[in-house]
Design goal:
The chain has about 375 residues and is of the alpha/beta class. The chain has eleven helices and 15 strands. A six-stranded mixed β-sheet has the order 10-9-8-11-15-14, with helices on both faces. A five-stranded mixed beta barrel has the order 1-2-3-5-4.
Length: about 375
């Protein structure tokens, strides 16, 4: 008597679905239609994808997958295209083996997605979302002690992490470069996102790796994000206990490792956790709304709620609680400047992507223009 599940797996040969260890669950299964077979995207290549799928014998197999005509028709926007970490639906083939190519028919709904604005000229409305990693639980924001260290960059990454739906964790790598000053760097990193955990690690000595391990649970997915040479691949290899991704030697003059990661790749660790290594992001433009900025700059947003005017710009109005915070030192000038910059960037993006917001912005400037012309006439 056959004992196959809905996907054709013989349950007499395995007592559990191997995809569960990769994060498969009811959320994704509920969106899988017909007799399509699920797979997880391990890497996006030029014209194809590397995916992990069931092999029909209770295990997993890595396959090259290409987009079907149906998928190409459905993915009108760049952000709809499969990204590393996505779950996709494959056209089923009996007896899958690693030397054959399968077709991707659809991308399943995402639980989370870390995105940025794709490169393009906003003057010509070239505004599009680029998904860096999908279905992630934790975003490790990696910055190295030494010349790479930047609190402002961490604020930007943390804002994007909140928008993604994943939890940000701040990691200062190459702790040995800081010596006795590492505690100060960790404290500064913690200020970039007050509610997020922050700690230092040294991949070569293993110091701090146990703190990262708390977030690397079986079936969970994390992503390493940071600038080129911040030590992401070295950190990944230390966590795995083996070389999963190649690394380059550190250059003495700027304390940066040579950039070797060329693709966003999903790796499995020995304990069943998964982690995505990414190339260094040279440009990290926001893709978000105001709420994510508020989540990172909590002390400023709390002060803003107490301003005298509800439409306060927090720059020159009387009764502005934010300016009062600047005056008494409870809000730092650096955080204030970064907050204004990210908030303006978020609102600008909204006017480029939301037709109603664009109309409201145009109407606002029309009113201001009329008022300016009226004032000019009254002075003539």
């Amino acid at each position: 008597m056959s004992n196959k599940n809905d996907s054709g797996i013989d349950m007499n040969m395995t007592d559990k679905d191997p995809l569960v260890e990769m994060g498969w669950g009811d959320f994704f299964a509920g969106a899988l239609s017909g007799n399509l077979e699920p797979a997880r995207v391990l890497e996006v290549r030029r014209g194809s994808f590397l995916v992990a799928a069931r092999d029909g014998r209770g295990g997993l197999v890595e396959l090259e997958a290409k987009p079907s005509g149906h998928l190409s028709g459905d993915c009108a926007e760049k952000a709809d295209w499969p990204a590393t970490g996505d779950w996709v639906a494959l056209r089923p083939r009996p007896g899958l083996s690693s030397n054959e190519t399968v077709l991707v028919e659809a991308v399943l709904p995402r639980r989370s997605a870390f995105s940025r604005k794709a490169t393009g000229d906003t003057r010509y409305d070239k505004v599009a979302e680029q998904v860096i990693a999908a279905n992630i639980d934790t975003v490790f924001i990696v910055t190295a002690a030494g010349n790479d260290f930047s609190v402002r960059r961490m604020e930007r990454y943390a804002t994007l992490a909140l928008e993604s739906g994943a939890a940000p964790v701040l990691v200062v790598t190459k702790a040995d470069l800081a010596g006795d000053g590492i505690d100060q760097l960790v404290a500064e990193a913690g200020e970039a996102c007050p509610f997020a955990p922050a700690f230092a690690v040294c991949a070569f000595t293993g110091a701090g790796l146990d703190q990262m391990a708390r977030f690397l649970l079986p079936g969970s997915t994390s992503v390493l994000l940071g600038s080129s040479g911040s030590g992401k691949s070295t950190l990944l290899n230390a966590l795995a206990g083996t070389e999963l991704n190649a690394t380059g030697a550190v250059k003495e003059f700027d304390q940066r490792g040579r950039h070797t990661t060329t693709a966003r790749t999903l790796f499995s660790l020995g304990n069943g956790a998964m982690i995505i290594d990414t190339p260094g992001l040279r440009e990290v433009q926001l893709w978000l709304g105001d709420d994510s900025v508020a989540g990172v700059f909590t002390e400023i947003e709390e002060a803003a709620a107490a301003c005298r005017f509800s439409d306060c710009t927090h720059q020159n109005e009387p009764g502005c609680a934010v300016l009062a915070g600047l005056a008494d030192g409870s809000i730092s000038e650096e955080r204030y400047g970064s907050w204004l910059k990210l908030l303006a960037e978020a609102r600008f993006l909204e006017t480029k992507t939301n037709p109603l917001a664009r109309k409201a912005e145009r109407d606002k400037w029309k009113i201001r223009s009329k008022a300016a012309k009226k004032l000019e006439k009254s002075r003539a």
